[in-house]
Amino acid sequence: AKKSLMDDVVFYSQDISDDAAALLTISSELKQAKAQDQFELLLQPQVNIVSNQVVGAEALVRWHHPKRGFLTPDRFIPLAESTGSIRFVTEWVFQHAIRIIQNWREQGAEMTLSINVSAMELSNRKLFNRIAQAVKLDPTIASAITIEIVESAIVENIEFTKVLLADLRAMGFKIAIDDFGIGFSSLSYLSRLSVDILKIDRAFVNKMEFEKDLAIVRSIIGLAKNFNLSVIAEGIETQEQARTLSSLNCTKAQGYLFSKPISVDQFNKQYLDK
Ligand code: C2E
Ligand code: CA
Ligand code: CA
Ligand code: CA
């Protein structure tokens, strides 16, 4: 179950007297976490369900907190966003995503890696200057990275987002709209923004036995086709869901049916060493 932001503030305030101090604590802890590599990226395979080939992975961050143990993103991403210290996470994730792709290439594997970027990072020009610098050393790296952004973030800040997404695409990155269909209902931005991929949210995929949810999934796939975009479905847990999706011509998917998110080592062992 999702916890509220206040739960996390309280969680961080346990040994501290007030919420402001708790917010300061998480900022300095995230900064340290970046410096000391306390984060870890788990990889979940993205699969072509027609050929049964793994075509890439989504990187999902975890935090090995020195005092609080293993933290999933819902325990710290919302707080990191609200304090602005999300940049430490995002910078670390980019650095490590680049390393993962370099390592894959050294092993002869051409796969894509999707990373999640928070809404508010879209306004961080400094971050994007650093990313630009990092990929300037090897521009081909960008073409292997898909940046996943949630729909609501795009709609809230469309003029700014438009410029930024165009810049990122010019660098070679692919852009995916995450949780498509969940957030805001404005579709007009699809014609105004240049994106590459629509990602169908798990909330629709796991209810496809209901006619209306199936209709939404079918519509998103149709929309993607009409806009010349790729489509990928997330949260596939059953063979039947996979069959339904492929009958609707959605060929890419990820979910527990194929694999839970696993460590980079495990991923490489399982999907690279053939
Ligand atoms: P998301 O981007 O929508 O990622 C999908 C989430 O669904 C992941 O949870 C994944 O482990 C989970 N999942 C994948 N397949 C299945 C399935 O078949 N069934 C079910 N029930 N769940 C499945 P996770 O790893 O806990 O991540 C939660 C959210 O945290 C992500 O949602 C994303 O919004 C955010 N997040 C993760 N990593 C990062 C990051 O590096 N940066 C930022 N800003 N956000 C991140
Ligand atoms: Ca995602
Ligand atoms: Ca998603
Ligand atoms: Ca989500």
From TrEMBL:
Query: Where does it sit, as one GO cellular component term?
Result: membrane
Q: Which UniProt keywords apply?
A: Membrane, Transmembrane, Transmembrane helix
Please cite one Gene Ontology biological process associated with this protein: signal transduction
Superkingdom to which the source organism belongs? Bacteria
Q: Name where it mostly resides.
A: membrane
Q: Where in the cell is it found?
A: Membrane
Kindly indicate whether the keyword Membrane belongs to this entry. Answer: yes
The residue ranges of the EAL domain are: 23-274
- Which GO molecular function terms does the record list? catalytic activity
**What is the designated name of this protein?**
EAL domain-containing protein
Question: What is the protein's species of origin?
Answer: Brumicola blandensis
Intact protein stretch covered? 682 to 955 of 955
